[in-house]
Design a protein that fits this description.
Blueprint lengths: L4 H25 L3 H34 L1 H22 L9 H21 L3 H4 L4 H17 L11
Length: about 160
């Protein structure tokens, strides 16, 4: 199967987010909070446009196939990952995490990693079958990237 430009860029986003989430988990497992905080800043920047794209463009397509409850779960997983990023970004330089806090952040990051890994496998559902709609979706993804919105700035009600 040859991937469209939209699918290729979507997949590359997922690969980058997976690398960043894994690196954050490794840092936290080693007790390197400073590295985890730095990585959280990178993830916050890299995930902002992608999460907005998924919620605005991709998830309505998924809802037509899988139903709104499925999409609602996906959005809750976004909120869970965002909570971990915000927790790390709120730490003062040199902060030490209590073990319970570290475990909670690790658990949230694992949810986010599982989400990114599973969502990245739904490439065929990103293809609407309509070239113009897919070109508009790709343009929107690129526009969101240029806007530079942070993941931490998104609002979740779930």
């Amino acid at each position: 199967m040859e991937l469209s430009a939209l699918q290729q860029e979507f997949l590359e986003d997922h690969r980058r987010l997976i690398r960043e989430l894994r690196a954050m988990l490794t840092s936290l497992e080693r007790g390197d909070v400073a590295s985890a905080v730095a990585l959280a800043g990178e993830l916050d920047e890299d995930a902002g446009a992608h999460m907005a794209f998924e919620e605005e463009v991709f998830y309505p397509r998924l809802a037509r196939v899988h139903g709104q409850a499925f999409v609602d779960r996906m959005v809750r997983e976004h909120a869970t990952g965002q909570r971990a990023v915000k927790s790390l970004l709120s730490l003062a330089p040199g902060a030490v995490l209590a073990e319970a806090d570290r475990q909670a952040i690790v658990q949230d990051l694992r949810v986010a990693l599982g989400h990114v890994m599973s969502c990245g496998t739904m490439l065929s559902e990103l293809d609407s079958g309509e070239a113009e709609a897919d070109e508009q979706a790709l343009a929107r993804l690129r526009e969101l990237r240029l806007d530079g919105a942070l993941w931490s700035g998104r609002s979740y009600t779930h």
